[in-house]
Amino acid sequence: MSRVLVLRHGHVHNPDGILYGRLPEFRLSETGQAMAQAVADHLVASGEHVGRVVASPLLRAQQTAAPIAAAFSLDIATEDRVIEADNIFAGERTPRPMDFLKPRNLWRIRNPRTPSWGEPYVEQAARMRAAIIDAAAANPDSTTVIVSHQLPIWVARCSAEGRSYVHDPRSRECALASLTAFDVDGDAIAFAGYATPAGHIEVPR
């Protein structure tokens, strides 16, 4: 059985409140950089034997992975399958609840089960599952850290726990720079815990 830790990236520099989705230029803020370092320090202090570091191609994920890779003298492997979920709101200001009542947005959110505003949950779950299984197979004798994004991580956990993908986004247990652990045995994935090693770092409002 192999351990895979899936890490959400740290806080992003986003003064205009844009829903950045897969937009490539969004980087970590100073707070996000501190979060990434806190995770690296936590992994070293806890004695975790990290043998591989994998990250989404997006800049914020690569930057979050960097101090962990440095701490364990590893390179970062880029994995397209753990990228952020596609979202048609990307590039716009993050919608407020009242914005969904606008006619064009009512059509966009017509199907919360798919969802109609972006990549279907089942597709996210399938690509995340495949990436986690492949990561475990590539590094069976030590821990792999994968840096990904909130929704794909949450969907991967829902899949592993056999729970519904339909949810209130506010209920996701997937804070910035949090670790969601999975144990992988062949093609079987089990949720193995959740930790917030950067939870002590205050997020700017």
Mind explaining what this structure looks like?
- The chain is α/β, with parallel strands linked by helices and 205 residues long.
- The protein has a single domain (2-86, 120-195), classed as 3-Layer(aba) Sandwich (Rossmann fold).
- The protein is 32% helix and 18% strand.
- It has five helices and six strands, in the order βαβαβααβαββ.
- Strands 3-2-4-1-5-6 form a six-stranded mixed sheet, sandwiched between helices.
- The longest helix has 18 residues, at 121-138.
- The mean pLDDT is 91.
- InterPro entries: His_Pase_superF_clade-1, His_PPase_superfam, PGM_Phosphatase.
TL;DR?
The protein is of the alpha/beta class and 205 residues long.
Topology readout:
Elements: E1 2-8, H1 30-45, E2 50-55, H2 59-71, E3 76-78, H3 103-108, H4 121-138, E4 143-148, H5 150-161, E5 179-185, E6 188-195
GO molecular function: phosphatase activity
Pfam family, one: His_Phos_1
Protein name: Broad specificity phosphatase PhoE
Average of pLDDT: 91
Strand content: 15-25%
The major beta sheet can be summarized as: 6 strands, mixed
Task: Please give the count of helices.
Answer: 5
| Oligomer status | single chain
Structurally, how many domains make up the residues? 1
Radius of gyration: 17 Å
Lateral arrangement of strands in the main beta sheet: 3-2-4-1-5-6
The CATH architecture is 3-Layer(aba) Sandwich
Distance between the termini: 41 Å
The general outline is globular
> Structural class per helix/strand content?
alpha/beta
CATH fold annotation: Rossmann fold
What's the CATH C level? Answer: Alpha Beta
Percent of residues in helices comes to: 25-40%
Q: Give the CATH superfamily.
A: Phosphoglycerate mutase-like
Poorly predicted segments: none
Strand segment tally? 6
Give me the strand/helix succession.
Answer: EHEHEHHEHEE
